[in-house]
Amino acid sequence: MGPASTDRCPQARPAVRADGYLRDVPTEPTEQQQPAAHGPVEVRRSDRRRRTVSAYREGDRTIVLIPARMSKTEERRWVTAMLDRLAAKEAKRSVPGGDTELTERAGRLSERYFEGRARPSSVRWVTNQNTRWGSCTPAEGTIRLSHRLRGMPEYVVDYVLCHELAHLLVPGHGPDFWRLLQAYPRTERARGYLEGVAATARMPDVPPDVTDDEEV
């Protein structure tokens, strides 16, 4: 689950850039606390910057460039949006962790914790899930994981996979579902990690009710 990114700025539509090219001389750099998967974030304000918001990686740090007049609320919103966009770009460029590897990983987890009974038809990364960590459609046997999970600890990704695999066997989040998910020994630890990330990013912790999709 994660905050829905937005493409609209109250003043104007910014020209989003993530190529590392810096046109303005930044002023008043500030630090923001972000989820561990993103690393440190430095926000640089510039009086010369009027209608653009851009971001780029600098080592393990992310630099976000914004207009000086932007409010703190707008700053938080745009920092989150730009982190999402950088992560999406990097996920598309990343070869390891592709759908084949993810499907094999889900198969191993099913064998280990669900006696091989949870058999998804496909498991893949997606970049359009900003309000959930993962989802599945039991009728079709498909599982989708948010690109935001990339870079998080393996036990957290395994938990989300197990969560969705369990939904292939038990729909909804009733007692039978949680008893089944107890087979994964790091469930509580992973839930605590994701809740911490959600709180930091101001993400909704409980997804809305759905009809055919089961999500986490």
TrEMBL record:
Endpoints of the signal sequence: none
Region Disordered, annotated ranges: 1-50
Residue ranges constituting the YgjP-like metallopeptidase domain according to the UniProt record: 73-194
Cross-referenced Pfam families: YgjP-like
Protein name as catalogued: M48 family peptidase
